[in-house]
């Protein structure tokens, strides 16, 4: 019996987002289920049947529909996301009311080697607790309508002693804009200042476990205390409750140390891991909030000297888009555009390659260069995703597809490579169909 499953309705009738542990992979994000048909689309465990969505490849799995406990799905309650021109209006107003703090400025100039001009034009900003309720008031005042924030991901209503008020979601960090092919700001990712630590369990869930902790694979326990050691390494003291026996362990962040062997349950292990540093700025599941999805944003970066005079026309009207590069992440795309003097699309994740298809077609692109991190050569998951991307582009487009390669000892990402004064080697993966026909 599949018990205690938490589901949330999606826009597709009969399909639900799994908000608890997926019955296939055990994780709590991205997977979908159709209880009546007994079908799960899992993002992590491969199968022979799949489809490529805007968030990556989803693998089809069958489960016994009679084993699914009757469930009352959660209503999303999200306000439908507004269209791009409207989002750009609100986000540009918001950006004019925000600043970049010294900590983030130092990160961009010292670590990422950006100039003041690059930082100014790219419009990076800092999100902090002290501005979350102030910025919406300023936006409402300038637009003379507080309800203008409805349908804008990142904003939601909270209840105060004087009634509901608009505020901003998200943890503290640096906000990075995503831009459309017409220079509309379509959303943001936040590079978190302090990513949280959490416990991840691995192994088969045995019977007789008292549930107290909330990681992803069904096992549960309690984080007792989190502290920072003298050398700056974060640690957590945790305990696991099994058949009324309490087992304690100390876990460190950087080692991601697995702890095994609780009596007869030797297949159980836990590790302390850090959540992703980059998160979407979204207000989904909050009062009057909106999801960043439907679809997720992509980011088109142009060289900074063009971006400063890009006033909303199609990018191909002010820059040649015959050749467009693709990488992962908005900052990496920004830096690559300046170093290569080429348009670069930054995807929110390497598996979200389908997001780029329509923008590339609208730009009239003839040649796509994939600049995936160099660890594709040694990371099986990245290599597999790259293979899927090549297959997808070959089926869906008439564009020539090439791969940028370099020695990983010089740098992992394309931005690391160009910071070191090098350019990648380009190898053709798929020739365009028109060129094949001509031959």
Whole-number average pLDDT? 83
- What would you call the shape? globular
Oligomeric state of this protein? single chain
Instruction: Quickly count the helices.
Output: 10
Total tally of structural domains: 4
Instruction: Please give the CATH architecture of the largest domain.
Output: 3-Layer(aba) Sandwich
Can you summarize the main beta sheet? 6 strands, antiparallel
Description:
This is Toprim domain-containing protein. The protein has 439 residues and is an alpha+beta fold. The chain has four domains: 7-67, no CATH class; 84-193 and 278-290, DNA primase, catalytic core, N-terminal domain (DNA primase DNAg catalytic core, N-terminal domain, Alpha-Beta Complex), CATH 3.90.980; 201-274, no CATH class; 301-438, Dna Topoisomerase Vi A Subunit, Chain: A, domain 2 (3-Layer(aba) Sandwich), CATH 3.40.1360. It is built from ten helices and 24 strands. The protein has helices spanning 84-96, 102-111, 116-122, 134-143, 304-307, 330-340, 357-363, 380-396, 414-419, 433-438; strands spanning 7-9, 16-18, 32-34, 39-42, 50-53, 56-62, 125-127, 155-160, 163-168, 173-179, 185-192, 197-202, 222-228, 234-242, 245-252, 259-262, 265-274, 278-280, 299-301, 323-328, 344-347, 367-370, 400-405, 425-430. The strands form six sheets. It has a six-stranded antiparallel β-sheet with strand order 1-2-3-4-6-5, with no helix packed on it. Strand 10 (173-179) and strand 11 form a beta hairpin. The protein is globular.
């Amino acid at each position: 019996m599949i018990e205690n499953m938490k589901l949330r309705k999606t826009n597709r009738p009969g399909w639900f987002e799994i908000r608890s542990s997926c019955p296939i992979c055990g994780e709590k994000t991205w997977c979908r289920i159709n209880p009546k048909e007994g079908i799960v689309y899992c993002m992590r465990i491969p199968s022979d049947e799949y489809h490529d969505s805007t968030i990556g490849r989803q693998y089809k799995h069958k489960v016994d529909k009679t084993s699914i406990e009757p469930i009352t799905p959660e209503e999303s309650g999200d306000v439908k996301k507004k269209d791009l021109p409207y989002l750009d209006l609100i986000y540009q107003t918001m950006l004019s009311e925000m600043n970049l703090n010294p900590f983030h400025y130092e990160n961009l100039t010292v670590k990422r080697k950006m100039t003041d001009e690059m930082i100014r034009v790219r419009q990076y900003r800092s999100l902090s607790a002290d501005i979350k309720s102030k910025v919406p008031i300023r936006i409402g005042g300038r637009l003379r309508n507080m309800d203008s924030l409805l349908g804008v991901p990142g904003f939601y209503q909270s209840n105060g002693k004087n009634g509901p008020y608009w505020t901003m979601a998200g943890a503290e960090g640096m906000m990075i804009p995503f831009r459309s092919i017409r220079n509309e700001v379509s959303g943001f990712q936040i590079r978190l200042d302090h990513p949280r630590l959490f416990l991840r369990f691995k192994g088969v869930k045995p019977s007789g476990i008292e549930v107290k902790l909330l990681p992803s694979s069904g096992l549960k326990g309690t984080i007792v205390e989190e502290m920072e050691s003298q050398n700056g390494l974060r640690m957590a003291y945790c305990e696991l409750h099994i058949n009324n026996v309490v087992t304690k362990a100390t876990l460190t962040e950087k080692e991601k140390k697995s702890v095994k062997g609780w009596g007869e349950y030797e297949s159980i292990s836990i590790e302390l891991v850090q959540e992703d540093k980059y998160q979407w700025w979204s207000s989904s599941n909050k009062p009057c909030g909106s999801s960043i999805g439907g679809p997720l944003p992509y980011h088109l970066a142009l060289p900074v000297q063009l971006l400063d005079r890009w006033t909303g026309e199609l990018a191909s009207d002010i820059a040649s888009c015959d050749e467009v590069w693709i990488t992962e992440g908005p900052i990496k795309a920004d830096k690559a555009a300046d170093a290569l003097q080429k348009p670069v699309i930054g995807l929110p994740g390497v598996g979200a390659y389908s997001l780029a298809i329509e923008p590339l077609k609208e730009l009239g692109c003839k040649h796509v260069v994939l600049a995936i991190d160099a660890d594709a050569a040694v990371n099986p998951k990245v290599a597999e995703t790259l293979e899927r991307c090549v297959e997808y582009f070959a089926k869906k487009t008439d564009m020539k597809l090439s791969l940028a390669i370099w020695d990983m000892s010089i740098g992992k990402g394309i931005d690391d490579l160009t910071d070191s004064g090098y350019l990648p080697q380009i190898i053709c993966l798929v020739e365009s169909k028109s060129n094949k026909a001509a031959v």
